Amino acid sequence: MEVQVKLLHPLAQLPRRAHPGDAGADLCSVEEVTIRPGERKDVGTGLALAIPSGYAGFVQPRSGLAFKHGIMVVNSPGLIDAGYRGELRVSLYNSGDQPFSIGAGERIAQLVVQAVEEPVFSPVEILPVTRRGEGGFGSSGR
Predict the structure, then answer these.
(1) Are 92 and 75 in contact (CB under 8 A)?
(2) How far apart are CA 116 and CA 137, in angstroms?
(3) Which end of the chain has fewer CB atoms surrounding its CB within 10 Å, N or C?
(4) Whole-structure pTM value
(5) What is the three-class DSSP state of 64?
(6) Within a domain: residue 131?
(7) Where in the sequence is the domain holding 95, given as residue range(s)?
(8) How many structural domains does the chain have?
(9) Does 120 map to a domain?
């Protein structure tokens, strides 16, 4: 499967995997941004993608940024539908206690492209019974 990528900015970089076999490909910023504690920022990657029909892109946080600095993807995972052709922008949130600065060219998130089903949703009066039933949050213990 090929994902065509249009570079929209002179500093834009193709998504790339850090190691062979990695599921996620790193996304880099084309902007210099500082995110204060408790603040959200929309950060540009300078990329537009042509994700093939039957697939979707999922923008995930980078674990090192999340653990070391509290930098998270706000709507994790961010969903990129196959039909979207605008700039891929990443909404980042600083849950840490220090301002965090991002330089142009820095890795800010990861992109995972996956096949997606297009289910047909059918209304019914009764759902099939399962062992779990209606047990929701905390139903399996702590």
Answers:
(1) no
(2) 26
(3) C
(4) 0.88
(5) helix
(6) no
(7) 4-16+23-115
(8) 1
(9) no
